[in-house]
Amino acid sequence: MKAFGIDRYKSKEGLVARDIPVPEVGDGDVLVEIHAASVNPLDAKLGDGEFKLILRYRMPLVLGHDLAGVVVRVGSCVQRFKVGDEVYGRAADGRIGTFAEFIAVNEADLALKPKTLTMEEAAGVPLVALTAWQVLVEEARLQPGQKVLIQAGSGGVGTIAIQLAKHLGATVATTAGTSNVALVKSLGADIVVDYRRDSFEKLLSDFDVVFDTLGGKTLEKSLTVLKPGGRLVGIAGPPDPRFAEQLGLAWPLKLVMRLLSRGIRKKADRRGVSYSFLFMRANGDQLRKIAELIDAGAVRPVIDRVFPFSKTREALGFVKAGRSKGKVVITMK
């Protein structure tokens, strides 16, 4: 089968097209013929080696985390799927590789594709929707009537998070550039701060939750808009000690992560709020719930651009440039 991968981290060649064997199918696995995949900033960061200390991959490595396609083979213990099912999912860490014609995925990481979406649309959902779900529902426990600030509302995660937060009954504020204000308003944002003109920390206050997707100075400024007892959840770092425990990392790495997040955790404590870091995980059960929301019309993916499979390298470059609205998708068909 054809696939796109890297030979080493920070390779000058970048993504390289190659022919590799079709993956073997384990007892609990589903072999999916991929019809579409999406490109995420995570793919670019992984290729640059940003996660090599915590995600150990052998080279060469086929990149890609999201997929939508058709089941062509099932393992002997698979119960949820059959040949011919249309599915979507986020391949689990350690088993990525959706920039390819086929992938073997554990059945627990897949769900039936939303009926109202095309393959291209469905491929743009899993990673960003799971991230939004795990931050807003699991971590922040967002409740009706609460106020949430979602940073970078026009990005892949932001476009889904705005819609999910509105579905949960929250008042939603977001940040966006001038050209994207209309987009995020159309998704349900109640308050939009144009970051090119205004500073969100000067305009917003008394928020229950901040969902930070940017990190750095934006992360620290986000603390100032929270009310006492508020929660700041970040996906751009720094990782915290609990994350290190969840991964089961060796004590030197646990110490590193404790030190990396010590500053933001202390600042949060002084303001009477909390900070936590989330690195999303594959979860087929959550994708089933998300599919129900999509088919009910509560959430829709925003697709910026669709590239043919042969242009996967260009698609990754477009995402690395950081200006996409919603998701960038690769289609195989």
UniProtKB/TrEMBL annotation:
It comes from Methylobacterium nodulans (strain LMG 21967 / CNCM I-2342 / ORS 2060). The keyword Oxidoreductase applies. Transmembrane segments: none annotated. This is Alcohol dehydrogenase zinc-binding domain protein. The lineage of its organism: Bacteria, Pseudomonadati, Pseudomonadota, Alphaproteobacteria, Hyphomicrobiales. It comes from the Bacteria. The keyword Oxidoreductase applies. GO terms for molecular function: oxidoreductase activity; zinc ion binding. InterPro entries: ADH-like_N (IPR013154), ER (IPR020843), GroES-like_sf (IPR011032), NAD(P)-bd_dom_sf (IPR036291), Quin_OxRdtase/zeta-crystal_CS (IPR002364), YIM1/Zinc_Alcohol_DH_Fams (IPR050700). PROSITE patterns: QOR_ZETA_CRYSTAL (PS01162). Residues 10-330 form the Enoyl reductase (ER) domain. SMART domains: PKS_ER. Keywords: Oxidoreductase.
